[in-house]
Hints:
Number of helices: 1
Helix content: 10-25%
CATH architecture: Roll
CATH class: Mainly Beta
Oligomer: single chain
Structural class: mainly beta
Strand content: 35-45%
Distance between the termini: 30 Å
Radius of gyration: 16 Å
Number of strands: 7
Amino acid sequence: MGEGRYPYFGEPPSRKPQPAAEVPALLGKRVILSLPEGFVYDMRAISQVRPDEDGQDVLDVVSEEHYFRWMFTKERPVLEAFPVRLVWVE
């Protein structure tokens, strides 16, 4: 493994997911949903944490595909609100 294998600073450090409730400025960030069936990746936050009608903290999320479609075409995606306790930020 020669010194020239990785340019500049070498291999980037791995990132540990963080609970969404602890991360400021969530809009547009990649998130992971924790569901009974397993983890769902490739999602984007499309709001800040907000209370729902029951007073529970939720976060609106969409798939990455729908997020970028919204960014490029302004076609508003269908939002899904998830309890913030089930959302992790990549």
